[in-house]
TrEMBL record:
Signal peptide: none annotated. This is Protein export cytoplasm protein SecA ATPase RNA helicase. The keyword Oxidoreductase does not apply. It comes from Aerosticca soli. PROSITE patterns: GNAT (PS51186). Keywords: Acyltransferase, ATP-binding, Helicase, Hydrolase, Nucleotide-binding, Transferase. It comes from the Bacteria. InterPro entries: Acyl_CoA_acyltransferase, Bact_Acetyltransf, GNAT_dom. Pfam families: Acetyltransf_1. Gene3D superfamilies: 3.40.630.30. GO terms for molecular function: acyltransferase activity, transferring groups other than amino-acyl groups; helicase activity. The keyword Hydrolase applies. Residues 4-151 form the N-acetyltransferase domain.
């Protein structure tokens, strides 16, 4: 098996990013996303880098998965938390170190940029993902998440 390479996503990756986000929503939440809305949402990240960036993992020139990083300003810490979102690894590449490599690159970039920490959220029943995050040094925080949809 050849080494993974991690690179910033490009607009040419849009079809993969759409497919991965749609698949992740079905797998983790049983939700079917509107692909047109999803395409506009992903393109908006490329249009305005202040929103974040996507990374793609490749092996032998073939995309294996990716993730999105967004930013949250912390006035308490005078710095940005980097949020890891929209994580997806194609089924054939799972348990092959793809997320580990993506995570390592996010951490490297975050440290270089002076971020104050990394955060992500995970479905409460997704114990497999929770175990992976713990092995990478992340810990469960003491906050619960609430939301209210406005649209």
């Amino acid at each position: 098996m050849h080494a993974l390479s991690i690179r910033p996503a490009r607009r040419e990756d849009l079809a993969d990013l759409i497919a991965w986000n749609a698949a992740m929503a079905v797998e983790t939440e049983g939700k079917t996303l509107d692909r047109e809305v999803l395409a506009r949402g992903i393109a908006a990240v490329f249009d305005e880098p202040r929103r974040g960036f996507y990374l793609v993992a490749e092996r032998d020139g073939k995309a294996q998965g990716g993730l999105l990083v967004t930013y949250e300003w912390s006035d308490w810490r005078n710095g940005d938390f980097w949020w890891i979102q929209s994580v997806y690894v194609i089924p054939a590449a799972r348990r092959g170190g793809v997320f580990r490599a993506l995570y390592a690159e996010v951490e490297r970039r975050a440290r270089a940029a002076g971020a104050v920490g990394l955060r992500l959220y995970v479905e409460t029943g997704n114990t497999r993902a929770q175990a992976i995050y713990a092995r990478l040094g992340m810990r469960r925080c003491h906050y619960l998440m609430y939301e209210r949809a406005l649209a």
